[in-house]
Amino acid sequence: MKLSTYSFKWFTILFLLVALQAQSQHTEAYKHPPSEVVTIHSRVLNEDRKVYVHCPKSDSADLNKRFPVLYLMDGDNHFELLAQYADYLSRPDVSAMPKIIVVGISNTKRTRDLTPTNSIMDYLGKPDSSSYKLSGGNENFLQFIKTELMPLIDKSYQTEPYKIFAGHSFGGVSAINCMLTHPDMFDAYIAVSPSLWWDNEYLLKMTDEKLKTGSVLNKMLFYSNGNEGGSNSFFHKHLLKLNSTIAKKKLKRLDYMYKHYPSETHMTEPIVAYFDALRFIFKEWGKDR
């Protein structure tokens, strides 16, 4: 049957309307909830701090549902990445993890906040006072999270007790330092390419001292490194040393994973490592459902 020009025109319009409606319905089904920017004045740090908060889409069937919280350092760089991962992996058709709240902490003085000791030595062991003279403020930063940020998030959002702490590079240093010095602050820790060279391998030494052989550490820990100078680089050797130290301690109830990404650089590694970290932490999710 041959359509007239008039009939063909209306047939085309009808087809486009149906297609647009279907596209609109699909978009609505997977629309990402908006994120919020919150500013908090920290008395501990004596400054205003900006944080990004991404909450799951509300469930009309359970408006009182509460969610785990992932606290992320370097929020300016990695917040959107983690928010998208969390949304995708928790979609009903994927169901690889529960819905979570993601809190990204923006930087003001990154070296100050994320390093555990005051040191002016760079990764080559050469003095660099211009970059590192304000280092060593990680304890204050952790106190800001514990005494100011966490109470605000718990008061303002529908949180449950389970908490994750994640960071890259100096942020990875902060995550491991927190696990060793304040293990009860979080249930799981993610350290992507932690800069274990810091202050003459300070954290590697502290890991060996703090973790007593056969002791109980009921946590989850994911750590990784990329191709930061090849298989003989200090980054890779340090992560192997960390992994060896943790293995020989035979800690009870510590569930840990080390991954090496030889095809990723220091800056591309977080893209794959954070995904793998979430899959590891929630590996048991849905198995009994």
Could you give the order of the helices and strands?
HEEEHEHHHEHEHEHEH
How would you state the average pLDDT, rounded? 89
- Which fold does the CATH topology refer to? Rossmann fold
CATH superfamily: Alpha/Beta hydrolase fold, catalytic domain
**Strand-pairing-aware structural class:** alpha/beta
* Portion in beta strands: 15-25%
How many structural units, i.e. domains?
A: 1
In terms of quaternary structure, what is this? Answer: single chain
Enumerate how many helices there are, as a single number: 9
Structure description:
The protein is 42% helix and 19% strand. It is built from 9 helices and 8 strands. The protein has helices spanning 5-29, 75-89, 110-114, 129-132, 138-156, 170-181, 198-210, 234-249, 269-281, and strands spanning 35-42, 47-54, 67-72, 101-105, 159-168, 188-192, 220-225, 255-260. α6 packs parallel to α7. The longest helix has 25 residues, at 5-29.
Main attributes of the structure:
289 residues, Rossmann fold, 8-stranded mixed sheet, 42% helix
